[in-house]
Amino acid sequence: MAALFPSQFFSLSKILYFSLFISVFFTVSHSDDLSALLDFKSQADTSNFLTSWSKNVPCSSWMGVKCHPITHRVVKIVLNRVNLTGSIHPLIQLTQIRHLSLHHNSLSSIPNFDFWPNLKHVYLSHNKFSGEFPPGIYHLKRLRRLDLSFNEFSGEIPVKELNQLPHLITLRLEFNSLSGSLGADETKVVASVKDFNVSGNNFSGKIPNWLSKFPVAAFTGNVRLCGYPLRTICPSETVDSNPTVMSTPNSQFNFLNQRKKNLSENMFLLIVTLDAIGVMMTVLIITWCCYYRKKNQENEINRMRKTKTKYNQDTSSSSLYHSFEYGIKRTSDQFSTMVCFEGCKGFNKVDDLLKASAEMLGKGSVGTSYKVAILDNGDVVVVKRVIEKLKKIKDVDGILRLIGNLRHTNVVSLRAYYSSKEELLLVYDFLPNGSLLNLLHGNRGPGRTPLDWTTRLKYALGAAKGLSFLHSYNKTKICHGNFTSSNILIDHYGNACISDICLHLLLQMPISSNNGYKAPELSTQNNVNTNQNPRKFSQKSDVYSFGVVLLEILTGKIATSEGETSLAKWVQRVVNKEWTWDVFDFELARYKEREDEMVALLKVAMACLVSSPKDRPKMIVVEKMIEDIAKKENS
């Protein structure tokens, strides 16, 4: 072996020395973490709840403790509702901790936050912490969520210090004894804050303009607080620090007392009596006018109904036939018998359907849908009309009969169909609650009712059950072909039901280049040779589309494109950086205690979105994974 030159020997020595230093450093740091956790257990766990905490390695099986996979330093502690008491000072040695959750305990002493410079998530609500606002907050440059609600903190909040936290999203301080002001209008505490609450404290003064975007509930219980969105206006002069209440019964009563002092008692009673009589007369006049107007409207409506009924009987202008944008040829075909399935009532011929009253619901990628009321029994169905000529597909009737025999709680039932060379009529159950697409993305402005986490998870599980049933039906290897959030409808009982099964396959509709649900292998086929039939859909391409729907449920974003700008690619880029709340819908911010379930569902979505079809799970496996998450949510 050749001898080492002095320079080579020196370099090798430095490498060995550095490796030894790193090894000793991690060993010492790991030992400090172990000692800190055991000290905390001995002081705080008076109920001996942490029985899994022994002298073994804390990263193996200790309840509520998570370590870094490389350094083995403690990075996360979650010990909620375990009856911890006393102080959390022993934990100051956990210098690498990023997530600290100890809510719903009886802890009473908190150290300086300087010891935890890497903290991102702090959940210490529902404890007995007291004293001034915890010092050292401004050192936590990575802090995203801070929840100190339902404690006994007092004094002022350090507005200037909080202004140095650029990533803060959640600030929950409700139901403490904090006081002072919330800052001036020009002082804006972290523009990124989206979840804010200081109700049930002793704050005073004007609410800064930048905080006025939050609801009234975020400020209630602070009697000396004024300004929008509260119903108290701030005094015009700064001499009096008490806010003036907007026109309320109490202020009016004080005004009447003042009048009573200035007027004689008899004059006061006279004025009050005349005022009361005037109000009563006004109410009676308004009531009579409203009744008269409503009566006239009812008469007009009844007259119009009679006219419309007579007109319909004479001309059938509101029938399904007349609702069609392009008329159907009146031949003997219209008297042909429709192919009916279980639950088909009130019609068995095409002409029976065409004579029923109808209104257009909308146009989709495979045809136009109409809401139709059957004359015989009053049932309401949806008729989807496709006027494109059917391509040369073997056994069209066989495919439609297969779809018509599908019966499942989470599948929209096909009740009947009529097929000719020129068009196709499909009769489905009418589901009144709209599509998942509309519930997630409709009316995102003011006045929208947010879709809560439990409902979203229920819809995800229902859609998974419907698609899993379809994939396993009679071992036919049938697939949906165009699985999107618009093809998930909500029935009378709040169940998510999949619709438009196999229609894209049956009609061989072209795949849109802007389809954010399309699996990568389908795009590849289109790019290789556009002259070949690209319609090689599979159950695994359905799984990919289902993964995109899960991302819509989690992010609240619309899947509108493919490639690098797609929703799937955006989520993958965020996830590759770090698990953060940035990927989740803002409407889910109030369910932060369900973060583990949201992350679990996100992992299911990412498993469905892998590039290789063979590596994607089957829908029956996906259904089981979501079912496990739902069981955890219910428990």
Q: How does this structure look, described?
A:
- With 635 residues, the chain is α/β, with parallel strands linked by helices.
- Helices cover 36% and strands 15% of the residues.
- It is built from 16 helices and 24 strands.
- The strands form six sheets. The protein has a seven-stranded mixed sheet with strand order 1-2-4-6-8-10-12. Strands 17-21-22-20-19-18 form a six-stranded antiparallel sheet.
- Helix 10 (453-471) runs antiparallel to helix 13.
- The two termini are 67 Å apart.
Structural descriptors:
single chain, 635 residues, alpha/beta, 7-stranded mixed sheet, 6-stranded antiparallel sheet, 16 helices, 15% strand, flat
- Roughly how many Å is the radius of gyration? 34 Å
Overall form: flat
Main sheet?
7 strands, mixed
According to DSSP, the number of beta strands is 24
Query: Oligomerization state of this entry?
Result: single chain
**Proportion of residues in helical segments:** 25-40%
Question: What structural class do you assign from the helix and strand content?
Answer: alpha/beta
Q: Roughly what is the average pLDDT, rounded to an integer?
A: 78
